[in-house]
Amino acid sequence: EKGGFETFMEKEIHDQPQAVADTLLGRTDAAGQLILDELRIEPEELMAVNKIIVLACGTSAYAGMVAKYAIEHWCRIPVEVELSHEFRYRDPIIDPTTLVVSISQSGETMDTLMAVRYAKEQGARTVAICNTNGSTIPRESDAVLYTHAGPEIAVASTKAFLAQITAAYLLGLYLAQLNKKLFSGQIKDILADLAAIPKKIEDILERKQQIKDLARSMKDDTSVLFLGRNVGYPVAMEGALKLKELAYIHAEGFAAGELKHGPIALIDEGQPVFVVMPSPMDRHSLHAKVVSNIQEVRARGARTFVVAERGDTAVEAYAENVFEVPETQPMLMPLLTTVPLQIFALELSSAKGYDVDQPRNLAKSVTVE
Ligand code: M6R
């Protein structure tokens, strides 16, 4: 049941530390090596993979985008991410060295199922990242990497998203281990940082009142923009999708670098803008660029709400409201920065008196094309 919470969504947001921990559980041996035997694809075959295509819809596709950043960085294998319904109808180029990774909470999304079937027909190997045991997509795939988020009841996906990102990291690290693209010490360090994530999510949940108060104060706003870069970009889009689904207000997520190519024209007096800050340790020094973006939108009257790493003092001068997340390595930040955005959407929806668990016009799993 709802475990003492008012809605399933709130409960599921609080299940997230467990969802990440359970998805990591049992996937390493005593020596700290990743063991993904369950993949049932021969290591030789995985080592021959020279392109990965991730297929998914909605929130699961944003998990796919995070996977792209991580897998390309760690494994040096090109990764394309495509919405399942677009992929299927565009003559994609696939061969037996293409690994198709589908991501689906339900395992029943018709668009994704059709895309996986199509990829199989074209000769690709298929792996499903899925949260539902024995559902159709994993049954029809060559291999499956289950996320262990437990049943997700609320229509808006939360804990499944964090579990999908976790599973995608594991897949990336496993491929890096097989192909010797990372030293075993590096893999161990990343796994240790992953293992520390559940506690850090708890730290965020303990401070949720700050976000709740903010959401309540914004219940008459009619449009909210979200900016992010690198792995923060899919987080920005996920923040916007949550708000569309739950609060029925116009929301858009942008890559912060794209701002000056058009979206900045949307900024006028009072426009709320959420900014997902990159880590100050980001190896591309994106942090300074996003600080400039905050200044640019503020100069045009935007109200800025920034999700930033604890100790990131550079943003404080510019943001109206800063929500801190604990430190982790830059690639793993989505597991933390997503959480305040989920709480924000949940709270804004309930402040407006909407049904958080059953938003209008939506179904939990979309079983028609
Ligand atoms: O079950 P799936 O992960 O395949 O579902 C994909 C999307 O329909 C799903 O993520 C949808 O976008 C959610 N309502 C997001 O909150």
Automatic annotation (TrEMBL):
Homodimer. It catalyses: D-fructose 6-phosphate + L-glutamine = D-glucosamine 6-phosphate + L-glutamate. GO terms for molecular function: glutamine-fructose-6-phosphate transaminase (isomerizing) activity. Keywords: Aminotransferase, Cytoplasm, Glutamine amidotransferase, Repeat, Transferase. Residues 42-181, 214-359 form the SIS domain. Its EC number is 2.6.1.16. Signal peptide: none annotated. The chain holds residues 255 to 623 of 623 of the full protein. This is Glutamine--fructose-6-phosphate aminotransferase [isomerizing]. It comes from the Bacteria. The active site is at K364 (for fru-6p isomerization activity). It is found in: Cytoplasm. Catalyzes the first step in hexosamine metabolism, converting fructose-6P into glucosamine-6P using glutamine as a nitrogen source.
